[in-house]
Amino acid sequence: MKIRFNQPENKIPNDDRGLRIQYSDAKRPGRPWRWYLILAVASIPLVYLIGKIVWENYRVEANGRIKITNFVVRAPVDGYIQQIFVKPMQTVPAGAQLAHLANAVLKDSYDRIGVEIELLEKERQKLLQQAAQSRAGSLQLLKYAQEQRDFAQHRLRQYERLFEQGAATQAEIATVRSQYRSALENLTVIEKTERQETERVRNMAQGIAPEVRQLTSQINQLSLEFEKIQDQLEQLNLSASADGVITELFAEPGEYLARGQPLLEMIFPEKVMVDAFIPPKYQDYAVTDQTVRVKFPNGDSAKARIVAVPGVMQKTSAAEINPLEVIRSAILAQMEFTDTVDTRLINGMPVTIYFD
Length: 356
Description:
The chain has 356 residues and is α+β, with helices and mostly antiparallel strands. It has three domains: 99 residues, Elongation Factor Tu (Ef-tu), domain 3 (Beta Barrel), CATH 2.40.30.170; 62 residues, CATH 2.40.50.100; 128 residues, Helix Hairpins (Orthogonal Bundle). It is built from five helices and 15 strands. Strands 3-10-14-12-11-15 form a six-stranded antiparallel beta barrel. A four-stranded antiparallel β-sheet has the order 7-6-4-9.
C-alpha cells in the first residue's frame, strides 16, 4: 500500500479549475404576505366550522316555504265547456262567474220531467174539482130532500087535523104518511151520500184518497228527480267562492269534462301560511304562539307566529341542504304573519325563519 501525502484539491463552489462560475443564491428573498395568504386559505374550513358552531349556539333558525292556499276547480257534473270567463293570472272577486258548462241530456230531462209534473198536477186538480162539484151536487140534493121532508111533514099534519074534523079518510092519511116515510128514507140516503162525498173531498185534499195518493206519490218522486237535475244544472255555472287569482287553465272552451276532471286552479293570496321545518334539536321552539322572524329571499323580513304544530315529521328537501349533508327529518310547524307583508309572495317560495 502506497501512502500519498499530496494535499487534496481545495474545492471552491464558484471556482472550477480556475474558472469562476456565477451561481444564483440558494435562497431567494421571500415576502411574508404570501405565507399569510396560504395559511388563511388552508384555515378556511376550520374557520367555517367554528363559525357554524358559534352561529348555531347563538341563533336558532330553520328553513320554510310560503304556502298559499290553492284550490282546483273541477267539473261537478259531466258537460261541455261552453264558455270560460277568466284568464291566467287574473284576479277575481268572490262570486264571480268562472265558466259555464252545457249538458244537453240534463236539460232535456229537466224539461221532460217538468212537463210530466205539470200534467200530473193538472190531473190531480181535476180530480179535486170533480169531487168538489160532486159534493156541491149532493148538497143541492140534500137541500131538496130536506124541503120534500118538510113539505110531507106539513101535509101530514094538515091531513091529521082534517081527519079529526071528519074531512079526510084513513086511506088519505095512510097515503100521506107513506109519502112522508119515503121522504125521510130518501133524506137519509142523500145525507149518507153527502157525508161520503164530504169525506171523499177531505181525503182528496189531504192526499188520502187512493187515486190522489197515487198521483201525489208520482208527483213527489218526479219532484225529487226534478230538484236533483235542477241542482246539477245550477252547478254547471261555476263561480269563485272567495277573492283569488287564477293561476292555470287545464281546459279550453268546447272540451268535454267528466265529473271530477280539473278545469282551472286558483289561489287565495289572503290565506297565506308558512310551513316551517324545524330541526328536532330545536323542538322546544315548536310550540303554539311562538314568535319568529321570516326572512324572504330579497332580504325583507316580517314577523309571524306558530299557529299549529300537526305533530308530524317532514323529510328535508334535497334542495334545502348542501350536497355534503344527508336528508334528515324535521318538525313541521305552520305559521301565519302578524305584520303586513309588502313583499310579493309566491307559493313555494323558500324563506329562512329565525326564532326569537
